[in-house]
Amino acid sequence: MKTYLTSFIASFIFVVAITPFLIKAGIKYGFVDTVNRRKIHQGLIPRIGGIGIALGTMFPLFLLFFFYKNEVSKILFNSFQNVCVIIFGGLAISIFGLYDDIKGVNAKIKLAFQVLLAAGAWYAGFEISVVSSPFGVINLGWLGTFVTILWIVGIINAFNLIDGMDGLSSGVSFFACITIMTLSIANGTMFVALVSAALAGAVVGFLIYNFNPAKIFMGDAGSMFIGYMLSVLALKSQSKGHTLVSLLVPIIAMGLPILDTTLAFIRRYMRNQSIFAADRQHIHHMLLSKGWNQKKVVLVLYGITVFFTVLAMLLIFNKDAESFLVITVFSIVVGVIITKLGYLEILYSRFKTGKEDRLENILEKYFLEKLSSTDVAGTIFSSLPIKGFEILDDNGVQITFSGESDKMNFIDIAVENKSYVRFFWNTRIPTINTRESAMLSILAKSINQNISPEKTGEK
């Protein structure tokens, strides 16, 4: 226990000491988080604090390696896999996140990097391969690989998404660290407890500067580092049998960010949005919309996290009859959060409205009516890179034609009545994404409905 406490204190002091320098550097070199419609803070605040959390977590490990070796540190450093995943992997994702905070990285590249790190952790033995249940041992096989990578990438993004309010991600991660450390001690994985204590000290040290009103943000360098570390530590904190209860402990402890991320992905899927699309309907945004201030929202979410932590602790020390009750209580609380914040209305709105009442159909009808009152052909030729079009039936027979044709540069857009409109471009066909396809579809439907053979000069 002395080693864990020393690890916590060392990382805490390191982060408290280095963060003021990061604040000054962020302001001096312009590494700040600017205000936009999604941000809720005021002014220019440095966003490079996460690298301090990463270095602070590694600081006590550095001391143990070079100056004071004991049985716990030997277990960590005598395993090349542990060093690669925890130390090199943690620093790698924090440095990558720092580059994203300063320069910006495409979301798909960021996801690919996360998957690569997760695959490396799986290869090094940080995995869920078997699960012990009352019905016997279940060997997951190839499914274990998928579940492991999904777990790591999911937790990384969970803490990345929840980092939208002063002190929220830092506070939630502290309670998750305490839970994983307790589970590690109970299951005898002492080096995981050591690293969890170091991470807990680092986030508490950072919280001094990050609590509302924040002087610095952790950015992706911190949120992705925290998510990565907690995800891999959770995999190693379990007993070798990987009991269902041990697997549920970190899920419940990190219930808030996991719930928020799950709702975000479901919400975007239901709206046919990209999973990378940003919005203001995360749990903390929904509470802010009720008129609460940041401090009240954060304290309420801290309270929920503490409650989840208590439930996770009960699972650790009561792994039999009480487990079902704990899981039931957790499920009820999650259900209440989803219901009270209006997520059921958001998630099921597309099923509660008739097809004719959906927004996409209302908008399409509106634009078709507006287009019908204008000279569509003239507008196309004067405003768009289109030199002609023709309407064809499903057999390819021309119904009507206007403008000029082109045997090479054309694109077909299906419309009603088993016909389609062929647009001839006056340049090479440009790259067309989903939104552009939807707009072209409306244009094609307008032409099909409103342009008669007489208007287009059909013979």
Annotate the secondary structure layout:
Elements: H1 2-29, E1 32-33, E2 45-46, H2 50-66, H3 71-77, H4 80-102, H5 107-123, E3 130-133, E4 136-139, H6 142-162, H7 168-187, H8 190-210, H9 219-237, H10 244-253, H11 255-270, H12 283-288, H13 294-317, H14 321-340, H15 343-352, H16 359-372, H17 376-383, E5 386-392, E6 398-403, E7 410-414, E8 420-425, H18 434-450, H19 453-456
Helix pairs in contact: 1-2, 1-8, 2-4, 2-8, 2-9, 3-8, 4-5, 4-9, 5-6, 6-9, 6-11, 7-8, 7-9, 7-10, 7-13, 8-9, 10-13, 11-15, 13-14, 16-18
Q: Please tally the helical runs, counting DSSP H or I stretches of 4 or more residues.
A: 19
Percent range for β-strand residues: 5-15%
Q: Helices and strands, in N-to-C order? A: HEEHHHHEEHHHHHHHHHHHHEEEEHH
- Secondary structure: helix percent: 55-70%
Shape: elongated
Mean pLDDT: 84
* Biggest sheet layout: 4 strands, antiparallel
Oligomer: single chain
Structural class: alpha+beta
Radius of gyration: 28 Å
* N/C terminus separation: 92 Å
Task: List segments where confidence is low: pLDDT < 50 over at least 5 consecutive residues.
Answer: 454-459
How many domains make up the coordinates? 2
